Amino acid sequence: MDQLHQSAVDEKAELQKLASKPLIFVIGGPGSGKDTHCSSIQEDFGFKHISAGDLLRSEAAKEDEQGRQIKQIMEDGLLVPPSATSSMASPGIWTRESCLYNRCVSAH
User: Fold this and answer.
1) pTM tops 0.85, yes or no
2) DSSP assignment of 15-55, as one string?
């Protein structure tokens, strides 16, 4: 079997393992304790915690158009639309490294 074919076989096996990993979303309003609960879940059960709030603050710090828009929404005391939050969370959730662990995502 050539190296490329073996890589494809290995990739398929890896994806099959990932399909069995649980993904938990912890959803609640600002200040409701999502990060606190996720930290406990992470510590007790070995989940990886991906915080939507951390992703938003990181994105808002960028000097691009989306970062400026998110920063303004947050400064106005509004909630960033779920479509923006989920598009930022997706790369963090689905990277190979994070998929090797169970995931706990806190979202607004």
Assistant:
1) no
2) HHHHTTS-EEEEE--TTSSHHHHHHHHHHHH-EEEEEHHHH
